[in-house]
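Board notes (copied after class):
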Amino acid sequence: MGEALPSIWRKIFLLYRDGLRNMRLGRTLWVIILLKLFVIFAILKTFFFPDLLATRFATDAERAGHVLEQLTAMPDR
Protein backbone atom coordinates (compact mmCIF):
# COMPACT_ATOMS: atom_id res chain seq x y z
CA MET A 1 0.00 0.00 0.00
CA GLY A 2 2.87 2.38 0.76
CA GLU A 3 4.28 1.88 -2.73
CA ALA A 4 0.98 2.74 -4.45
CA LEU A 5 0.78 6.21 -2.92
CA PRO A 6 3.86 7.69 -4.67
CA SER A 7 2.61 6.18 -7.90
CA ILE A 8 -0.70 8.01 -7.51
CA TRP A 9 1.05 11.33 -6.80
CA ARG A 10 3.30 10.78 -9.79
CA LYS A 11 0.30 10.12 -12.04
CA ILE A 12 -1.44 13.25 -10.79
CA PHE A 13 1.70 15.33 -11.37
CA LEU A 14 2.17 13.92 -14.87
CA LEU A 15 -1.49 14.60 -15.69
CA TYR A 16 -1.17 18.27 -14.81
CA ARG A 17 2.27 18.64 -16.38
CA ASP A 18 1.17 17.15 -19.69
CA GLY A 19 -2.08 19.08 -19.65
CA LEU A 20 -0.37 22.41 -19.12
CA ARG A 21 2.29 21.61 -21.67
CA ASN A 22 -0.24 20.83 -24.41
CA MET A 23 -2.91 23.46 -23.73
CA ARG A 24 -2.28 27.00 -24.87
CA LEU A 25 -5.42 28.39 -23.22
CA GLY A 26 -4.69 26.48 -20.01
CA ARG A 27 -1.25 28.04 -19.72
CA THR A 28 -2.70 31.52 -20.24
CA LEU A 29 -5.36 30.91 -17.61
CA TRP A 30 -2.77 29.67 -15.10
CA VAL A 31 -0.73 32.83 -15.67
CA ILE A 32 -3.82 34.94 -14.98
CA ILE A 33 -4.61 32.93 -11.84
CA LEU A 34 -1.06 33.31 -10.52
CA LEU A 35 -1.06 37.05 -11.22
CA LYS A 36 -4.35 37.46 -9.37
CA LEU A 37 -3.04 35.51 -6.38
CA PHE A 38 0.07 37.68 -6.32
CA VAL A 39 -2.04 40.85 -6.36
CA ILE A 40 -4.34 39.55 -3.62
CA PHE A 41 -1.67 38.30 -1.25
CA ALA A 42 1.29 40.59 -1.88
CA ILE A 43 -0.13 43.96 -2.84
CA LEU A 44 -3.54 44.14 -1.16
CA LYS A 45 -2.30 42.64 2.11
CA THR A 46 0.53 45.15 2.30
CA PHE A 47 -1.63 48.24 1.82
CA PHE A 48 -5.05 47.35 3.22
CA PHE A 49 -4.43 44.90 6.06
CA PRO A 50 -1.98 46.37 8.56
CA ASP A 51 -0.62 44.31 11.45
CA LEU A 52 -2.85 45.70 14.20
CA LEU A 53 -1.41 43.51 16.95
CA ALA A 54 2.08 44.85 16.31
CA THR A 55 0.87 48.46 16.54
CA ARG A 56 -1.21 47.99 19.70
CA PHE A 57 1.02 45.68 21.76
CA ALA A 58 4.74 45.90 22.42
CA THR A 59 5.66 42.28 23.16
CA ASP A 60 4.72 38.84 21.90
CA ALA A 61 3.39 37.93 25.34
CA GLU A 62 0.94 40.86 25.25
CA ARG A 63 -0.19 39.91 21.74
CA ALA A 64 -0.66 36.27 22.75
CA GLY A 65 -2.62 37.28 25.85
CA HIS A 66 -4.94 39.49 23.82
CA VAL A 67 -5.57 36.78 21.22
CA LEU A 68 -6.25 34.20 23.94
CA GLU A 69 -8.64 36.57 25.68
CA GLN A 70 -10.53 37.25 22.44
CA LEU A 71 -10.79 33.57 21.56
CA THR A 72 -12.01 32.46 24.98
CA ALA A 73 -14.32 35.38 25.79
CA MET A 74 -18.00 34.51 26.09
CA PRO A 75 -20.20 36.46 23.68
CA ASP A 76 -22.77 38.81 25.17
CA ARG A 77 -26.35 37.70 24.61
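Comment from the instructor: The mean pLDDT is 85. The chain has one domain: 4-72.
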